[in-house]
């Protein structure tokens, strides 16, 4: 299987509008971060998208991706769902509704934000989705077993997802001991890391991530959901402990 980072930035993206900090004016492509999302390609070459934010169209075009067989949604914040309308060309081409897998709470929010996609009589140009409400237990789809990981983002529950011996977690500020059991000794763990300093009420910062790396002991840990406060890629990546890396848009991981 393969995971590709379509975006590794926070809700504002990097560069941030109007900001002239060192990161935002950097010309290094690794410092240009679209909103966080990944594409998982299964052994059968099926495409599983995780989250569909406002940069979805640009991400698909940039990465020469042409299909989405299903989408896993971590939670309902706009930087993770507001791009769903841009799935229309894929839906028109395939003639099929795109399956979305998420919490029941998230499914309700998606219906509220895209009511035209669920109308009894739909406008001919509207997108169309199959909503599948999932719980915190493994499920099988596209010949792939997926294990949800329940984490806390401020005051709401968010799903991370585990495939084989890789787990992807974004928008987390707390992981319970029960859920940590699913994350021990992985080949690859991907965690959000919004900045280096100053505790955040909803996201891990770098000291939190380093502590989790030491506790969970993955072979490799990649940081995502990165803000301009973390620093420029080429400097910060070299200063991380061995085994921890900054993800960047376009990075591929084979697992």
Automatic annotation (TrEMBL):
One of its GO terms (molecular function) is hydrolase activity. CDD domains: metallo-hydrolase-like_MBL-fold (cd16279). Keywords: Hydrolase. The lineage of its organism: Bacteria, Pseudomonadati, Bacteroidota, Flavobacteriia, Flavobacteriales. This is MBL fold metallo-hydrolase. SUPFAM superfamilies: Metallo-hydrolase/oxidoreductase. It comes from the Bacteria. It comes from Chryseobacterium pennae. Residues 34-225 form the Metallo-beta-lactamase domain. Pfam families: Lactamase_B_2. SMART domains: Lactamase_B.
